[in-house]
Amino acid sequence: MKNDHEKMNNDVSSAAETLFDAMSEVDDDLILRSEILSEEASIPADATGKPHSTSGVDGRSDSSPIHAVGKSRRHSWTIVAGSIAAGVLALVGLIVLITWATSGKGLFKSKDDPTTTPYSTTAAPPATTTPPDITTDEPDLTTMETEPSTTPAWSEPSSDTTIPMDQVRYAPDENAGLIPDDSEGAGAGEVLMPYALMEEITKPENRDAYFAVKIQVCRFAFVDEYIADQEAIFEEARKDPAIVRFDEAFRIWLNDVYMPQFTPEEWAAIEKQDSTGDIDLHEIFIEEYWSQTNPDDVTAYRDAMARLSDAEGLYAEVTRSDYVKDLYAGKLESAFYEEWDRMQALGYHVDHVLPAGADILDDANLDIYNGFTLTGYLTGEQIANFDIDATHGYIITWLAEGGSLTPADA
Amino acid sequence: MDDNAIVELYLARDENAISQTSVKYGARLRHISYGITESTETSEECENDTYMEAWKRIPPHEPRTYLMPFLTRIIRAISINRCKHDNRLKRKAYILELTSEMEECIPSSSSIERELEAKALGESISRFLRSLPEEKMTIFMRRYFYLDKATDIAKRYGYKESAVRMMLLRMRSDLRAHLEKEGLL
Prior knowledge:
A: 3 domains; five-stranded mixed beta sheet; about 45% helix; disordered C terminus; B: Rna Polymerase Sigma Factor, Chain: A; about 0% strand; globular
């Protein structure tokens, strides 16, 4: 089907296309440098031209969230000085780590520790445990606000309010904290939460108490519109006049001309063969009757069926999350950051890192229908008066302490 | 064979120029094309088309000191066009997605004059890229020149994917400010 991508083309302005095409005109040395630097950062391609997998062979991509322990990158210069300094500081860090571990507190809160929270809410890294990367002259990602940039101030998790972790309210068990069915997500402007949570937040004593929650941000207008468009295209293809004409003619031929030739037993066998694909009654109709009386209609019918097949295939694609994610990943991500930023500005202590360590912004965890998941702490009052963006829907889950929250559970 | 000698072969209309180009740059060109088309067969076709295009362009071009970027530009354009015109929905969709990310670099109220040459824009983008730290410049190039996926960039540089997306988001916003400042938008 061309219509959907022509529409996509129309949605992408010519200015954006020009800018994208202009990337081909960047200076030669930038192309060369980017190629060389890319080679330094990865494994080179093999002789067939296929790239080797660049999956974290050194495990760097599996490190902690960037705002927790900073980054670990390779540099090709000042290795000796950097290594010595890093070694000294690593030794210091190791001593601190051993001290923390033996104190029973641990460096990261364990989800199995019943006295600890399921996830960290602090943005500041525990500096004494991580050797600073002194070999770099680039700004630390955790201090982006110091860059001379006009970028929006995407919020980092707030660290200016102390949450009394020993007083956080958890769901009595995992099931109590769930809504019965979240498969359809929440409609735009809707907030869904389990009854057990609703009961608790209405109690006066819980007004300022913190509840451990997961917030699923659902519904993105551009995704819904795109899916609705594909559905409309599919419906339109299904109702093509050539298909309608054919179906009517086929029905009449089948009932008045073809079927009367057979006994009931013979007809039952023919129907079974048609259902298993051993014969095709539609093709028999075309061959024995329609192509002789309506040859032009046959061509129109086949063309319409080809269009229907394309539309059906594309409609089936849009129900697969990966396809629409490919189309709209950038917009979804921007929408997420806007929403996260808005919640941070409201004083909601929420983060996009799940207790299991998975980052919801990783491609595998993004759900185009039920969007993104934030986890954190909200007071009873904040939940009761949850400030929404009317374009999104929200599902608030009340988390159980030490629960097995994983992205698959979202 | 060095680039100067290869270009001399082109200028002399010696067909050995293509085989020498293939020997020196073939694997790299296929790699670039594969990153865009995700098809071995298509990338090989794009590679061959690139040699023919280079044959047409040399002369008048004489990329003695910039043969690799010269060829890279050609194969990038050919590969993107193949994705757009072949009926391969996912690659076409991916390229459209990257193009739509460029919308964020353009203020909603502005439009690029049709007469504005891509070269002038390219020069401005180059100035912007030079202002960036090398790694960020490379990440931007990997995304919008080589059309790498964010996951692949993250693996290459040891970042989490979310960090790469955040970097790209900020760089797109910075590019918008840069283009406004240069009066191109």
